[in-house]
Amino acid sequence: MRVKTKISFRYSQIETKPFPSSNRKVTLFRPIIPITILFKKQFVRMETLIDSGADYNIFHGDVATYLGINLTRGSKRTIHGIAGKIKGYEHKVELKIDQIKFPSRITFSNQLPNNFICVLGGKGFFDHFQVNLDYNNKTITLS
After folding, report:
1. pLDDT tens for residues 29-79?
2. What span, in angstroms and rounded, lies between the C-alpha atoms of 63 and 47?
3. How far apart are CA 14 and CA 32, in angstroms?
């Protein structure tokens, strides 16, 4: 018998300027959740953006380095997105969200900008959960 689990989070509230030299501030809400990535005996806990438009989990290469993953030993992958195309390397890891652990794959790349927030996408995240992003109530529910 399989037990259904629901995990809920609140959208993150972010204060920012509409453009760098603006005196105004705007409030944005984003579906950002805490996760833990486990690789062998290493782990890192971090905030990640749920991105329904992303095909894969995509993380900056410095996360792979921190976990002791040899970046270029992964399967090569070209990622096409809003910033053009970048080269990445896919690796098998384990993800933990709340108390739920599951095997996943992450594409790591050093070609991402330094201010890039890691994203959870289709393969490796959405294929493990039913995801409800309720923008009006600012809630995220995973089941």
Report:
1. 999 999 999 999 999 999 999 999 999 999 999 999 999 999 999 999 998
2. 12
3. 10
> Which domains, from first to last, does the chain contain?
31-142 (2.40.70.10)
Tokens representing 2? Answer: 């399989």
Closest among 118, 111, 64, 68 to 88, alpha carbons compared: 111
CA distance 60 to 2: 35
CA atoms 14, 18, 20, 25: torsion sign: negative
Closest CA to 45 of 102, 90, 96: 96
Check if the beta carbon of residue 7 is closer than 8 Å to that of residue 66.
no
Q: Which among 111, 70, 119, 112 is positioned nearest to 92, based on CA atoms? A: 70
